[in-house]
Structures are given as structure tokens and as C-alpha cells.
């Protein structure tokens, strides 16, 4: 539809390129966010356990333990799992791309 509106016969290469760029960039940014946020929450708990902000047993420590519980899965599983998704997306497009690119409209 968009290709015929613009007067172009086949927009598949542009669509695949945009999909690759958007998926890779978004996945990279979210993975970095999850890795850094998880590490920050883990280190916040360690910092409070050194005696800062009331030390162990304080309300800040209880909140930091909750943050650490959420942060560990982000840091250890969710962030690295996005790398697998980006790689799978790239491989799928490379393998199936010719099916989209060679099809006449």
C-alpha cells in the first residue's frame, strides 16, 4: 500500500532495513538499561549494608533488598536475553530476506 502510494513498486528492502535498525537499536538500549539498573540496585544494597543510611535492618535496607530482588533478574537474565533476541532477529531476516526481496508486486 505505501509503495504504491509513493509510486514505488517494491518497498521490501527499505522495510527490512528499518525493522533491523529499529529492533537492534531498541534491543541494545533496553539491554543496557536493564544491565545498569540491575547492577545499581545490587550495589545500593551493598552500600547500605556498609552502614550508610541506617545500615542493616533500617527501612532503607528493606527497600534495597526489594530492589536487589528485582535487580538481579534484570542484570543476570533479562539484559543478556535481549542479545539472543537481536541475534535471532538478524539471522531470521538474513535467511528469509530473499523471500521478501525477490517477490514482484
From TrEMBL:
One of its GO terms (cellular component) is membrane. It is an enzyme of class 7 (translocase). The chain crosses the membrane at residues 12-34, 81-101. Coiled coil: none annotated. It is a multi-pass membrane protein. Signal peptide: none annotated. Keywords: Ion transport, Magnesium, Membrane, Translocase, Transmembrane, Transmembrane helix, Transport. InterPro entries: PPase-energised_H-pump. One of its GO terms (molecular function) is diphosphate hydrolysis-driven proton transmembrane transporter activity. Its EC number is 7.1.3.1. The keyword Magnesium applies. The keyword Cell wall biogenesis/degradation does not apply. This is H(+)-exporting diphosphatase. It comes from Hanusia phi.
Amino acid at each position: 500500500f505505501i509503495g504504491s502510494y509513493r509510486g514505488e513498486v517494491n518497498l521490501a528492502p527499505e522495510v527490512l532495513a528499518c525493522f533491523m535498525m529499529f529492533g537492534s537499536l531498541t534491543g541494545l538500549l533496553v539491554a543496557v538499561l536493564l544491565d545498569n539498573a540491575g547492577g545499581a540496585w545490587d550495589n545500593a544494597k551493598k552500600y547500605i549494608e556498609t552502614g550508610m543510611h541506617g545500615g542493616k535492618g533500617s527501612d532503607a535496607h528493606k527497600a534495597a533488598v526489594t530492589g536487589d530482588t528485582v535487580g538481579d533478574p534484570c542484570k543476570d537474565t533479562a539484559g543478556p536475553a535481549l542479545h539472543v533476541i537481536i541475534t535471532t532477529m538478524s539471522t531470521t531476516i538474513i535467511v528469509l530476506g530473499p523471500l521478501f526481496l525477490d517477490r514482484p508486486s
